[in-house]
Write a structure and sequence with these properties.
heterodimer; A: mainly alpha; MetI-like fold; two-stranded antiparallel sheet; B: alpha+beta; Rossmann fold; 2 domains; 6-stranded mixed beta sheet; 4-stranded antiparallel beta sheet; 9 helices; 25% helix; 34% strand; Sugar_ABC_transporter (chain A); sn-glycerol-3-phosphate transport system permease protein UgpA (chain A); membrane (chain A)
């Protein structure tokens, strides 16, 4: 068949190119630019090659932050995913309480992140905070500004409070999509509650749970605002996550070169882990099939 | 296997039903005989699935009782009733293999592993899925999944009844026929009480010993396929069963004669004066197109459906269908119809009325 040749059609792609360029390519290239150059100020830059990357890889500070970051993401995933599923399973399926639950659950998701941080920062204070004061009153030695363990507990509980709803809502959506006939068949087959969960609910939720895990992983891996507001990365650097460290380096110390190299490795790490996650989980799903 | 008795049973989906219209299932008394195969036939939304779900215990009736072998099970759970039910859309446990799917109801009831293995093999053979036993259910076609559902329904030998809720909707036509035949032979072999919900008359008539026709939440007739054909108790039965359905013609009845727009038709029986909406019903199979005598009609078109011809004609402004033999030639001179007097039924307000013995 004869095809019409019209090179003008390329213009139709232009808006997308412009959009992507401004939203992703240009900012990213600026960072790449910084990461391979050095400066002594005065806006004079010279080529540094991969020097910054090598330096960053030798730097314990980044590895420590990465370790803390992985621990944080791991812990919140281990709590939020099962807890979210548990909440979704216990939510009402119909009636007035559905909307009530949905609204209540959505509330934490709607609060701006630094407000969440502020809420918990005040909530946990031993002098005026409800939580901190109560704990102190019943004799628990709790002070997130001086005790690393208390600081960790605080930011983890905060993140669980903030984001478990998301997992629960996604899981709930997955549950709602299961036709009644499945539950009826299970009743007729005399399946136990556990079997219903294991063989009907969990498989049907797998798709949304995968998305929930991926979203929660990426988000928690990039967390900045809330711990920054609550603990400022302290006590010491015990709650300094990757992005907090990055901001300290880039804006606090104005080490643009190392910070840029850091950024790129950070970005690639998230990309890599997400890709591995996604591949493993889709393969799992295929193998099940 | 059990006799199932419905005693004053009715169901409404509303919390406090007022009139009869609020009931999805109107009051019903019926015995389902032990070991018989029933088809529950009716248009969509007529209450057949409601009735089925009440029998299986998935739904609790608003009023009345259900008895299995004269034991009241109205408040018993589905599991206690020991019922198997197959749903319209395939319900399989995706992550399990076909074998585990079939074994699931037995495992849950704590059957011996050897028995389970034998029984699963038997069922797999019956549904023709022996080769797929080790496969996961997820990747299978809708056909295959529904076969698994059917298999899971049949795997328990001691069930009180087997209920089917339009189970062959998603199955390919040739497979439909095969599965239906298998269900039937299964029924002959094990003698389970079976209730089969469908809106497909062919399915109902070929599967069941007795067909229960439902219309608007009410059972309008229970009978053998032949009874439904020859003596529909309600105009709906006449219209719903048969292809095309029964001709229903408004008429005035006078003794043993029906008067239609001045023309008279002989009836098999005599009637007293009738009140209400009076109609006569005659199946297209018992209408003959002639040249000489009878009621005047105007032939609109003739459809040749292979085994016979269907003549669509106009009788006093309303449509009448006539079934003519495949070899009958339809000529333009044929402008009259006669009815076989033995097969003319009289309906008052849609219900069949028997006349005085002739």
């Amino acid at each position: 068949m004869e095809k019409t040749v019209n090179q003008k059609a390329w213009f139709l792609v232009l808006p997308v190119l412009v959009l992507v360029a401004f939203s992703a390519v240009i900012p990213l290239m600026t960072v790449v630019n910084y990461s391979v150059q050095d400066t002594f100020g005065n806006n004079q830059f010279f080529w540094a090659g991969l020097e910054w990357f090598k330096e960053m890889l030798r730097d314990d500070r980044m590895w420590d932050a990465l370790g803390r970051q992985l621990m944080f993401s791991g812990i919140i995933l281990l709590i939020q995913i099962p807890l979210g599923v548990f909440i979704a399973l216990n939510m009402p399926k119909s009636g007035f309480w559905v909307s009530f639950c949905l609204v209540v659950m959505s509330l934490p998701l709607l609060i701006p992140w630094n407000v969440v941080g502020t809420i918990w920062q005040i909530f946990g204070r031993v002098d005026i905070g409800l939580l901190g004061h109560t704990l102190a009153a019943i004799g628990v030695d709790y002070n997130y500004t001086s005790d690393p363990f208390a600081a960790w507990v605080t930011i983890i509980v905060m993140d669980v409070w903030h984001w478990t709803s998301l997992v629960a809502l996604l899981a709930y959506a997955g549950l709602k999509s299961i036709p009644d006939a499945y539950y009826q068949a299970a009743k007729i087959d005399q399946a136990s509650r556990w079997a219903v969960f294991r063989y009907i609910e969990l498989p049907k939720m797998m798709g949304v749970l995968m998305i929930a895990i991926l979203l929660r992983f990426m988000d928690s891996f990039m967390i900045y605002t809330e711990p920054f507001v609550v603990t400022g990365g302290g006590p010491g650097s015990t709650t300094t996550m990757l992005s907090i460290d990055l901001v300290k380096m880039a804006l606090g110390q104005f080490d643009l070169g190392p910070a840029a190299a850091f950024s790129i490795m950070y970005f690639l790490t998230i990309l890599l882990i997400s890709w591995v996650f996604y591949t493993v989980m889709t393969n799992l799903e295929k193998r099940e099939g | 296997m059990a006799k199932i008795t419905l005693d004053n049973l009715a169901h409404s989906y509303l919390p406090s039903p007022k009139g009869e219209d609020d009931f999805a299932l109107k009051e019903l008394n019926h015995d389902w005989a032990d070991g018989e195969a029933y088809a529950l036939l009716g248009a969509s939304g007529c209450g057949k699935s409601t009735l089925l779900n009440i029998i299986s215990g998935l739904l609790h009736p608003s009023q009345g009782r259900i008895l299995f072998d004269d034991v009241d099970v109205t408040h018993a759970s589905t599991a206690d009733r020991n019922i198997a039910q197959v749903f319209q859309f395939p319900v399989v446990y995706d992550t399990m293999t076909v074998r585990d799917n079939l074994a699931f109801p037995l495992k849950n009831r704590g059957a011996r592993p050897q028995y389970i293995a034998d029984r699963v093999q038997q069922i797999a053979q019956m549904i023709g899925m022996e080769a797929e036993l080790g496969k996961r259910a997820r990747g299978l076609t809708a056909d295959a999944k529904q076969k698994i559902s059917l298999g899971r329904g049949m795997v328990r030998e001691d069930v009180n009844a087997l209920l089917f809720d339009e189970p062959l909707t998603v199955i390919d036509p040739h497979m439909k026929w095969e599965l239906r035949t298998q269900l039937k032979s299964l029924h002959h072999e094990f003698g389970h009480t079976m209730i089969y919900v469908t809106h497909d008359q062919t399915e109902a008539l070929t599967f069941a010993d007795k067909v229960v026709v439902m219309y608007d939440g009410r059972v309008v007739q229970i009978g053998t396929p032949q009874e439904l054909f020859e003596r529909p108790e309600h105009t709906f039965v006449g219209y719903f069963i048969g292809s095309p359905g029964m001709n229903v013609i408004p008429a005035a009845i006078d003794g043993q004669m029906a008067n239609i727009h001045g023309a008279t038709v002989a009836l098999p029986q005599a009637y007293d004066a009738l009140d209400g909406k009076v109609e006569i019903g005659v199946r297209p199979e018992f209408v003959t197109l002639t040249e000489g005598e009878g009621l005047p009609v105007k032939v609109r078109r003739v459809e040749d459906v292979g085994r016979h011809k269907i003549v669509r004609a106009d009788l006093f402004g309303s449509e009448i269908n006539i079934v003519a033999g495949e070899d009958t030639s339809i000529s333009p001179d044929m402008t009259r119809v006669t009815f076989d007097p033995a097969h003319v039924n009289v309906y008052v307000n849609d219900w069949r009325r028997a006349g005085k013995a002739a």
